[in-house]
Amino acid sequence: MLYINCPHCGMRSQNEFSYGGDASVKRPELNKEVSDQEWDDFVYNRKSLRGKHLELWQHISGCRQWIKVERDTATHEIFRTFKADEEVA
Amino acid sequence: MQKYSIFNLVKNAFSNHENWDLAWKDPTPKEEYDVVIIGGGGHGLATAYYLAKEHNITNVAIIEKGWIGGGNVGRNTTIIRSNYMHDENGLFSEFGMDLWRKMSQDLNYNVMFSPRGIINLAHSDAQMNAYARRGNSMRLNGIDAVLLNREQVREIIPMADFSENVRFPIFGGLMQPSAGTARHDAVAWGYARQADSMGVDIIQNCEVTGFDVVAGKIKGIRTSRGNIKAKKVGICVAGSTNILAEKLNMTLPIETHLLQACVSEPVKPVLDNVVTFGAGHFYVSQSDKGEMVMGGDLDGYNSYAQRGNLPTLQHVLTEGIAMMPFLSKLKMLRTWGGIMDMSMDGSPIIDKTHIEGLYLNCGWCYGGFKATPASGWTFAHTIAQDRVHELNAGYSLNRFSTGNLIDEKGLGTKTWIS
Fold first, then answer.
1. Residue A40 maps to which CATH number?
2. Per the domain annotation, does A7 fall within a domain?
3. Which value does ipTM take for this structure?
């Protein structure tokens, strides 16, 4: 069982959350010319890192907020959690 | 190579089976090979075997980080089927079915192929219609498919829940009678033994640490046991694909996820077929030892851990008990996990890359085991001829940017988000 520290609600079990994928992916800017390659990278291509991975989760059975979680994909250890709009240093 | 036969079995019985040849050697890597296959799983071993057998290329090395049969080829639920709707998947898998039927003879190794049939259960009229459509598509591609009504399903699997007031009543199902199971370890060992006997070097405990690429052309690989020159390199590493891609500065339409499976304690024969639940993701078959072999959903988040968490297992087995209530009486014997190379449309990639002499085989999602022979056969063709075969032409790497996705399940891009 993973325990995720929701920045809004505190420590909760993984059952309350759903996963939203790599949080480092940025949508190409609106109203700007976007190349096929840029769009491809945004929609499909992923680094899928082994080790520290910044990812989105939604506290779907709790406050329903999207949050960012820094987690190790090899050990499942969770290091830090952030609000969705928080910048991660 | 010593042939496996009843006569040799009897002969060796007189010496207490102490004088059998080793099934494969443990060579030290040579300085150079014509082809290096990275990954000694089922697909890598099959690729090396078909390179030797179909294309007469025997100066081949398989580089394996761990040991033969220790990855997904030893961790799957051994299901073999070709019940796909899309032409690319159907024709590819049905070609594989033919290789499965001949495999034990071909490899001189009993892979215990058991064409016991697979039944996908339907729980609504809409699902029956969808199965009728899929069944028709399968038959158009020469694959056997039978649409079963509720009573026909009840005759085959009376132990499923046919009571009236269940949440997901069984309306019927789609059956592929020629589908089945095989002994997964035997597949790995059989391919390894034959490949070795034809001159392929199987190099275990050897991790790839980098690639030598000069002017857009592959020259060799760097490993924990030294540098190896190679004219051609094939990557065939399932859940570790992204790790190697990073060393090549490639970003792929692949995420690595964790899939669990489990077996119950062994019981007397009760289930003849492979059965899947249609209102969720759960499948079950009974092994020759009597264990109920079960699996279902991914754990749902990126993982390289090769071990899972209990919430997903509980979720999957809840579906299993809804489908066959007697499963709740069984004790769990083992659970385990493997790491899946989940592609963005749920279909695999077998293709050349932008680097000359470098070939990619990945994206097998949950369906890698059944594809073992067809994947090896087509990947060997792609490497030997430096062009894709018509069977794997649809499994291109650029289909994501060109929009030619093969979304078998119609789930869109992120197939694991349900």
1. 3.30.2270.10
2. yes
3. 0.95
